[in-house]
Design brief:
The protein has about 425 residues and is mainly beta. The chain contains four helices and 19 strands. The radius of gyration is 28 Å and the shape is elongated.
C-alpha cells in the first residue's frame, strides 16, 4: 500500500512539474520570440510592423506555440509614409515550437486576425501601398534559413474585418465592413481542397461616380481544389448570396506569370425577380421583406480565355425578366409590368466583336408606360447602334415609387419617341 501511495505521489509531482514547465516556457522564451517575430516581419517588407502587447501560450494548440499580437499595425514608408495599410485588434499565429531552435525556418501553422482593418490605396500613377515586399536581391546578406518563413498552414480566420480599396488610377472605390472569413486545408500539399466560409455585413462598390452595390450583404460558401505547382484553382461546391440573389459558378482559374486563364460559367438557380431587385442601390431597404414583389428572372453567363494587360477573355451574359411588379409599403405608387431581355456577347478577345442586344425593356409607373430596345455592334471601331425609345418618365412619380435616399424632391417630365437606325 505504501508503494502505491508513493507511486501516486511521484506521479502527482511529475504532473505538477510538467504543467509548471508548460507555464514557464512561454515566459522564458518570450523576449526571444518577440525579437524573432519583429525581425522576421520587418526584414521582409518595405513597411513598419509593430504591436503593443504579446501573449504566448502552449496550451491553446499544444504541442505548438500560439503567439498573439495586440494592436498590430503595418504602416507605409516612402510615398505612403504614415498611411496605415493593415491593422488588427489582435493578430494570432500558431508556430511549430521546434522551428524556433536550430538552423531551420520559422514554421507557421495557422493565422487569425481579429477586427483587422485593411486600407488599400492605389495612386493615379499606379503606385500601391500594398506593394511592400522587398525584392530578393535587396534582402540583407546575413539573412539565412533561420530568418526564413515556412508557410505550413492548416487554417486561417478573419473576424469582423474592415476593408477599404481606393483605386484612383481606375476610379474604383470599394468598402467592406463586418467581414468574417475562414479557410481550412493542408497548405503543405501540392494538391488540396480549401474549404472556405465568408460573410460580409455591408459592401459598397463605386466606379466613375456610379454606385453598383450599396450596403449589400454577402455570403459565400465555397470549396476550391488547388494545384499549387500549376497555380490552378478549380471551383467545386459553392454558392454566393448577394442580398437575396443566389449565384452558382463552376470552372477554373489558372495564374501564370503574365496571364490569367479563365474558364468559368455562372447562373442564378432561382427564378424570383425579387432576388434581382435587391441588388439595385437603395432598393434593398430595411423593410425589404414587406415590399410586394413578383415576377420571374433568370441569369446565366460564361467567361473563357486569357486575361492580361492587353487581352480580354471571351464572355457572354444573358438575363431575362418577365412580368415584374414592385410596390413599397410606404410609397404611394408602384412599378408595374417590368419586362427585360438582355444579351451581351463578346465571342473573342477582340471587344470590337461584342454585340449588346436589349430586345425589350419595359415598365409602367402610375399611368405612364416606358418601352425601349437597342442593339449595338462594333462598339470600338465604328459603333453601329439601332435603338427605339417610346414613353414617359415623370421624375416626380419615380420618387413616389422608388426609395430615393438623400433626395428631398424630384420634378420634371420627359416624353420620348426616338428611333435610331
Amino acid at each position: 500500500m505504501k508503494v502505491i501511495k508513493r507511486l501516486f505521489l511521484i506521479l502527482f509531482i511529475f504532473l505538477v512539474l510538467i504543467v509548471g514547465a508548460l507555464l514557464a516556457v512561454p515566459f522564458i522564451f518570450k523576449d526571444e520570440l518577440v525579437d524573432v517575430v519583429k525581425e522576421q516581419i520587418n526584414q521582409n517588407i518595405n513597411a513598419t510592423a509593430d504591436f503593443a502587447e504579446v501573449d504566448i501560450s502552449l496550451f491553446h494548440s499544444f504541442p505548438h506555440l500560439t503567439l498573439k499580437l495586440s494592436d498590430f499595425s503595418l504602416i507605409g514608408k516612402d510615398r505612403f509614409e504614415g498611411i496605415p495599410f493593415l491593422g488588427a485588434k489582435e493578430a494570432g499565429v500558431t508556430v511549430n515550437i521546434r522551428s524556433l531552435f536550430g538552423n531551420q525556418p520559422l514554421s507557421i501553422r495557422s493565422v487569425n486576425l481579429d477586427q483587422p482593418n485593411v486600407n488599400v490605396l492605389v495612386l493615379a500613377d499606379g503606385a500601391a501601398n500594398y506593394d511592400i515586399t522587398i525584392p530578393t536581391e535587396e534582402v540583407t546578406a546575413d539573412t539565412t534559413a533561420a530568418s526564413a518563413l515556412e508557410i505550413a498552414l492548416q487554417s486561417y480566420e478573419i473576424t469582423d474585418g474592415t476593408v477599404t480599396y481606393d483605386d484612383r488610377a481606375s476610379d474604383i472605390y470599394l468598402a467592406i465592413t463586418g467581414l468574417n472569413h475562414s479557410g481550412e486545408g493542408n497548405f503543405t500539399m501540392t494538391e488540396y481542397d480549401l474549404d472556405t466560409e465568408t460573410t460580409i455585413a455591408s459592401m459598397s462598390v463605386k466606379q466613375g461616380g456610379v454606385s453598383y452595390l450599396k450596403n449589400a450583404e454577402l455570403a459565400l460558401d465555397a470549396i476550391f481544389h488547388i494545384n499549387a505547382e500549376e497555380s490552378l484553382y478549380v471551383l467545386k461546391d459553392n454558392q454566393l448570396r448577394v442580398n437575396e440573389l443566389l449565384l452558382n459558378a463552376e470552372g477554373q482559374i489558372q495564374l501564370l506569370e503574365e496571364d490569367i486563364l479563365l474558364d468559368l460559367a455562372f447562373n442564378s438557380p432561382g427564378s424570383d425577380f425579387r432576388s434581382l431587385w435587391s441588388l439595385i442601390p437603395n432598393a434593398y431597404t430595411k423593410d425589404y421583406e414587406d415590399v410586394a414583389i413578383d415576377g420571374t428572372f433568370n441569369l446565366e453567363g460564361l467567361v473563357k480565355g486569357t486575361y492580361n494587360e492587353t487581352t480580354y477573355p471571351a464572355f457572354r451574359i444573358r438575363t431575362q425578366i418577365k412580368d415584374g411588379n414592385v410596390k413599397y409599403p410606404d410609397l404611394p405608387l408602384g412599378i408595374k409590368n417590368i419586362q427585360a431581355s438582355l444579351d451581351v456577347n463578346s465571342p473573342s478577345s477582340d471587344l470590337d466583336q461584342m454585340v449588346i442586344d436589349a430586345e425589350k425593356i419595359a415598365l409602367t409607373i402610375g399611368k405612364d408606360p416606358f418601352t425601349a430596345q437597342f442593339n449595338v455592334k462594333t462598339p470600338i471601331s465604328d459603333p453601329d447602334v439601332k435603338a427605339n425609345i417610346d414613353g414617359i418618365i415623370d421624375l416626380g412619380q419615380w420618387a413616389q415609387a422608388f426609395p430615393m435616399e438623400g433626395i428631398q424632391e424630384m420634378t420634371g417630365r420627359i416624353t420620348a419617341n426616338v428611333d435610331i437606325q
